[in-house]
Amino acid sequence: MLTIFIRRKASSFFLLLVCFISHGALAQKTAVKPGVNRLDLAGIWQFEVDSLDRGVNDKWFARKLSDQIRLPGSMTTNFKGNDIDVHTPWTGSIVDSSWYNNPSYARYRVNGNIKVPFWLQPVKYYKGPAWYQKEIEIPAGWKGSDINLFIERSHWETSVWVDDKFAGMANSLAAPDVFELGQFLSPGKHRLTVRIDNQVGDIDPGENSHSITDHTQGNWNGMVGKIFIEKRSKLCFADVQVFPDIDRKQITVKIQLKNTARTSLLPHILASVSDNAGHALSSKTQTVHIDTANQRISITYPMGLKPHLWDEFNPNLYKLKLQLQGDGKVLDSKEISFGMRKFSSRGTQFAINGRLTFLRGTLDCAAFPLTGYPPTDVQSWTDIFRKCKSYGLNHIRFHSWCPPEAAFTAADQVGLYLQIECSSWANQGATIGDGKPIDQFIYDESNRIVSAYGNHPSFCMLLYGNEPAGDQMKKYLTGFVKYWKPRDNRRLYTTGAGWPIIDESNYNSTPDPRIQLWGAGLKSVINAESPKTNFDWRNVIAKWQHPTVSHEIGQWCVYPDFSEISKYTGILKAKNFEIFRDQLKENGLADYASDFLNASGNLQVLCYKADIEAALRTPGFGGFQLLGLYDFPGQGTALVGVLNAFWHEKGYVSQKEYSRFCNAVVPLARFPKMVYYNDETLRVPMEIAQFGPAPIKDPQIKWSVSSVDGKVWYRGAFKKSIIPNGNNIFLGDINQPLAGITSPQRMIVSLSVNNYTNSWDIFVYPREHVKPKENILVTSVLDDKAIALLKNGGKVLWTLKQHTLNKDMGGDIAIGFSTIFWNTAWTHSQPPTTMGILCDPKHPALANFPTQSFSNWQWWDAMSHSSAMELDKIKPGLKPIVRVIDDWVTARSLGLIFECNVGKGKLIVSSVDLSADIQSRPEAKQLTSSLLTYMGSNDFKPAENVELQKLQAITGGE
């Protein structure tokens, strides 16, 4: 324990630090408990809406307000505000505004049945000033004391009056609002009035900023978290920041005192540090001088020979206790949790405590469906963060907002690296760096954030906000980085999430290294290039000298889970899901809802696996930030999570399965392709990304090739004495002939390193196919010959040439291999607008084309050479052999392959082109063989009859 005496001498201060070895000394000095010094203001407040903004001029602070409200809470959680209608003044861009005029939405624009598709819908809505008021009584013992009003989080411009006197205004979106009220509060009763305005005023962070937008948490009005009035000593701690130094095994404590006392006190500071187990640390004696103008003190405290370091694997924490004493009294006390850690860069990668690490992150976009505002309790955040870690993540990016204190505390305890942003997304109508009030706000907000949360070891990265715009934004953000780097070395700094990249930053954030760029459509890696895993992003990042984090990778959609609707028991309702469910039902597909969810979900996981593994394979890479692990409820509804907005599983992938390819240690493989003939040799370099707590010594490295029934066809092992930290670490090559596989198979290639296992599906087909016993016409046109054959009872496989499908029959539907990127509303229907296939794997037509019910890599060829047929335009209720899952907004019945009777004949229609360049397309050859084998069997008994005229309309009657 450390004792610091502060003596006043002339115009200068000095400190004499004396160490006490006995841990009990501090407890003996503080045996006398201070009196009550805090008044909790939670409960019922008077309240009134000020929709005409007359309250200030009409002096509402000088009278009793007419309504009541419960705090902490918001107007919405108290069911205050207006009903939702077509005139609701939302906060947030609505890119697809068709809801306001499209006849298909007319029934959802009727009062009493208002349902919006673009985000979750609050039960009430209000934007503007509102007034909150409470009668308080100041104890007699508080006379002459400094008194503060503490509001943990209000939203957002907050003005305070005591009785009829104005006491100040605050406008943070990130940190607590603290008002000094001592000069207004004498002992006795007073009227405390708070005016909160949630409109965007002179300070415009961007209406899509997650700190304010209705896309996610909602633009709420109210006060949440702790709300209290507190008595403070006139000499007290104003700010305390702890700077760990793991190299010197010490901390530097920077203290700023507030001194409004006029007496000549001779105070002293008692300081002690204890570890997680409560063991006190020793210290040394030293003298420290302070700056009289700012009354700042700097203390160096030794942390012992082997301090416990903090990281994702061992989130060790220490507790610093400070007491300011004078005249035998405890004037003030402070307790700070901190960690001994150094988050830094090493070349183009990140390091934690000198050891290489890799950011495996997701975004938190401030979606809180039950309350519409963030939780302020530690347990709620602990549950979220543990879920993230169970899916292999070690990093959270808070997109254009900053969470409350409880989130940092939970991240400290769980072990997560946080990127914090200063409440802004200055784009789409807002700009940064152009001399507007937002420019100064960002500096003020960043200072508030660092002061409030800077001691948390989880707080590792800071930037302005998301995707900036503005002619001078690069110059402005360069200044922002230069401002912070020398001021606080506890974290790394960059400009904005996404851009711009500057030399002054500690790290880069860019969307360039990912398999689907915004606007890439079908030209992306995953849609334009045949399946493989032997690529990475080394060429993309080679031009930069700092660590690079890939910005918002993924964005892969899944079909809505309509069973989720009942979970919205709070103030935000999933009316968007209700609209989508109605559309599916009206199109006669309601029974497919769960199948669409499962099939699109499995494709979504495949896409995320491809994205994440590409990042992990890249040597010298810094990491990725997913968008996201959980759903984004706004921007037209972006169902991009394997978890829903409540952070709950959706049923198609478990945390165990997901963490096989997203983890601190991930075995990897560089497949040149995913589809093989059985006369080929499987040649695959195997490697590992290893960012665990230490090198892996004498690892057990095994590989195998198995069939889906569990039979191991081939196996082997690699020998390596040690696997260091890092990635792109070569383990060995698989060189395995596939001649033993004589029938078409989906094979599972697995690689395990100790307890870490990853696997990949490959597909092996025979080179030669058995021809069907009977004569079946395969044609790319439904010509006279094909029609005559059908009329005479023959069999025809009609495989459409790509791009010949009539637009009215689905030819204009943008089909591709991947699922939808983000959503169709916000991307202006960027292709693909479909979500993979759905089929019955047991259908005999697919017996020789091994498949699951959903898209796997063998379907890439089909989806890349096809169009989606609108089945109901051919025949209402027509059920295909292979279905395509449509966008949930249109929810059409789409198909790739269907069968039918035409007169006396039997027909299979394939909108997959099975004729073009067939010799270089093993999947197409195998699918054709499977269909022909089926057509030549007794199982070929189509249940549906389709008119020839309808069939001819498929391609316009060619």
User: Strand order within the widest sheet?
Assistant: 29-28-27-26-25-33-31-30
- Helix share of residues? 10-25%
Strand content: 25-35%
- Radius of gyration over alpha carbons? 32 Å
CATH superfamily of the largest domain: Glycosidases
The CATH architecture designation of the largest domain is Alpha-Beta Barrel
Question: Which fold name corresponds to the CATH topology of the largest domain?
Answer: TIM Barrel
Explained architecture:
This protein is an alpha+beta fold and 958 residues long. It has five domains: 2-33 and 247-338, Immunoglobulin-like (Sandwich), CATH 2.60.40; 38-232, Jelly Rolls (Sandwich); 343-658, Glycosidases (TIM Barrel, Alpha-Beta Barrel), CATH 3.20.20; 673-765, Immunoglobulins (Immunoglobulin-like), CATH 2.60.40; 777-955, no CATH class. The protein has 15 helices and 50 strands. It has an eight-stranded parallel sheet. Strands 44, 45, 46, 47, 48, 49 and 50 form a seven-stranded mixed sheet that branches. A six-stranded antiparallel sheet has the order 18-2-1-17-20-21, with no helix packed on it. β42 (745-753) and β43 form a beta hairpin. α2 (378-390) crosses α3 (405-414). The longest helix is centred in the middle third of the chain and has 25 residues, at 593-617. It starts with a strand and ends in a 6-residue tail after the last helix. 53% of the residues are buried. Mean pLDDT is 93; it is low at 1-34 and 284-292. Its EC number is 3.2.1.23. This is beta-galactosidase. Keywords: Glycosidase, Hydrolase, Signal. It catalyses: Hydrolysis of terminal non-reducing beta-D-galactose residues in beta-D-galactosides.
